[in-house]
Specification:
By secondary structure, this protein is α/β, with parallel strands linked by helices. The chain contains 14 helices and 17 strands. 39% of the residues lie in helices and 17% in strands. A hairpin with a 4-residue loop joins β11 and β12. The longest helix is centred in the N-terminal third of the chain and has 20 residues. The N and C termini lie far apart (44 Å). Bound molecules: 4'-deoxy-4'-aminopyridoxal-5'-phosphate.
Length: 405
C-alpha cells in the first residue's frame, strides 16, 4: 500500500489556500509543518471547554485540563518509547530543551572536560554548548562535514576520549537533510561513558523514534515540526540523569517546600517544569502525535523517499543548479544554489508563483561557511507533498532562473 496523500491533504485546511491566484505549494516543512484539522480542533476544544490551570485546581475544569495534559504526556512517552512518563519534560521547543541540558551541564563540567558537537548543527545545538564550555573552561570539539554533507565519522571516533563528557548531534540536518547514524554514534560515545544528546527537531516527524533503541541520554524536539502547535516541545531524558540535573528555572510547580531561606525541589517531571505550563498546546501536540501515529511509518518513509528521489533527479538535470548536500541517507530538506541570483531572490520569485520555500543560512552559519555559500534555497517535504508539486517546483524554478539570468 502507498500513503493516501490525497486523504491526508484533505485534513489540512491551509493547503486549500491560494497565493495570488496560484494554489499554495508548501515546501517549507523543515521550518514548520502545517496542522491537521484535528489538532486545530483540539486547541479550540481546550479553550472553549476546559481552559484552566493544571494540577492545583479544586474544580471540574482543572481536573479535566490536568487529565488531558497528563494524557498527552503519555502519548509522547509511547510515541518515542520512553521507559517512563516522568522522563517526558514539556518545553517550549527544541531550543529550550537543549538549553535546559546545557545550562545544567555548565555547572557539572570541569576545565579538563570535553564536549563534541558537529559542523552541521542548527545554532540551537552549538551556541548552547559554546556557552556551557566557556562558563566551565571546558573544550568544545567539532566533527567536520564531508563534501557530500555527511559527518566525518573517522574524525568523530578520534575525538572521543575519557574526557568527553557529552556529545550532541542532530538526528537529521535541517539544512542538508542528512540522516545521521545516531544509534552507531551513540554506541561510540558510550564506549567512553559520555552523555549523548540528540537534536531531534528534524528527525521526529520522519518515522520511528525509539529512544531506548537509540541508547541516547537526551532527545529534544519541537511540536510544531510534527504537525503540532508552536510554543510546545519535549525534552526526553533518562530518569537517573534528570532526577539530579541542576535545575535552570525556578518558581512555582518545580518546588517541594519553600521557606524564606531555602527551597527543595519537586519530583520529575515537575522539577524541570517551572511555572504554568503550555497546557492547550501540550494537549494539541498529544493529538498531533496520536494522529501521526495512526499512519503507516513504512508508507511515510517510502513517500518521503520518492519525493526526495524525484527532486534529486530533476535537480541533476537542471543546468546551473548546485545541490548542497548529497548524503546517501537524506530526508526532508533539499538545499541548493543557482549560478545566477541570490537565494533570497529565488525565494521571492517562487513565492510569486505560490511556492513557499526558505532561503538563507537556516540557523547554520558554520555549515554555510563550510560550503562557501552565504545561504541556500531550501525546499523541505512533508507527508502531504506530492510528486506533482515537486515537478511544479522545478518548472517554476526554470522561470526564476531565466528571470535572474
Ligand atoms: N535544531 C534543528 C535541527 C532545527 O531544525 C531547529 C528548528 N529549525 C531547531 C533545532 C530549533 O527548533 P525550535 O526553534 O523549534 O526550538
Amino acid at each position: 500500500m502507498s500513503l493516501d496523500v490525497a486523504a491526508i491533504r484533505e485534513q489540512f485546511p491551509i493547503l486549500k489556500r491560494e497565493i495570488d491566484g496560484n494554489p499554495l505549494i508548501y515546501l517549507d516543512n523543515a521550518a514548520t509543518t502545517q496542522k491537521p484539522q484535528c489538532v486545530i480542533d483540539a486547541l479550540v476544544d481546550y479553550y472553549t471547554q476546559c481552559n484552566s490551570n493544571v494540577h492545583r485546581g479544586a474544580h471540574r475544569l482543572a481536573d479535566e485540563a490536568t487529565r488531558k495534559f497528563e494524557n498527552a504526556r503519555d502519548i509522547i512517552k509511547d510515541f518515542i518509547n520512553a521507559p517512563k512518563r516522568e522522563e517526558v519534560i514539556w518545553t517550549s521547543g527544541t531550543t529550550e530543551g537543549i538549553n535546559m541540558i546545557a545550562n545544567g551541564l555548565a555547572k557539572l563540567l570541569k576545565p579538563t572536560d570535553e564536549v563534541i558537537v558537529t559542523g552541521m548543527e542548527h545554532h540551537a545545538n552549538i551556541v548552547t554548548w559554546q556557552q556551557a564550555c566557556k562558563a566551565a573552561g571546558a573544550t568544545l570539539h567539532n566533527v567536520p562535514v564531508t563534501d557530500k554533507g555527511e559527518l566525518d565519522l573517522d574524525v568523530y571516533v578520534s575525538l572521543l576520549n575519557e574526557n568527553t563528557k557529552l556529545v550532541a548531534f542532530p538526528h537529521v540536518s535541517n539544512s542538508l537533510g542528512t540522516v545521521n547514524p545516531i544509534k552507531w554514534m551513540t554506541e561510540q560515545a558510550k564506549k567512553f561513558s559520555a552523555w549523548v544528546l540528540v537534536d531531534g527537531a528534524q528527525g521526529i516527524a520522519h518515522g520511528n523514534v525509539d529512544v531506548q533503541d537509540i541508547g541516547c541520554d537526551f532527545y529534544a524536539f519541537s511540536g510544531h515540526k510534527i504537525y503540532g502547535p508552536m510554543g510546545i516541545g519535549v525534552l526526553w531524558g533518562k530518569e537517573e540523569l534528570l532526577a539530579d540535573w541542576p535545575v535552570w528555572q525556578t518558581g512555582g510547580e518545580m518546588i517541594s517546600t519553600v521557606t524564606l531561606q531555602d527551597a527543595t525541589w519537586n519530583v520529575l517531571p515537575y522539577r524541570l517544569e517551572a511555572g504554568t505550563p503550555n497546557v492547550g498546546d501540550a494537549i494539541a501536540l498529544g493529538e498531533a502525535i496520536r494522529w501521526f501515529s495512526e499512519l503507516d511509518y513504512a508508507e511515510v518513509a517510502a513517500h518521503e523517499k520518492a519525493l526526495m528521489a524525484r527532486a534529486t533527479e530533476l535537480a541533476k538535470e537542471f543546468d546551473g543548479l548546485r545541490m548542497i548536500g548529497e548524503a546517501e541517507e537524506k530526508v526532508g530538506a533539499f538545499s541548493f544554489v543557482l549560478d545566477q541570483g541570490h537565494p533570497a531572490d529565488i525565494g521571492f520569485l517562487l513565492d510569486r508563483q505560490g511556492i513557499a520555500i526558505r532561503t538563507g543560512d537556516h540557523c547554520a552559519q558554520p555549515l554555510m561557511a563550510r560550503f562557501g555559500v552565504p545561504g541556500t534555497a531550501r525546499m523541505s517535504f512533508s507527508i502531504y507533498n506530492t510528486i506533482e508539486e515537486v515537478e511544479q517546483f522545478f518548472k517554476a524554478l526554470k522561470k526564476v532562473h531565466m528571470m535572474l539570468a
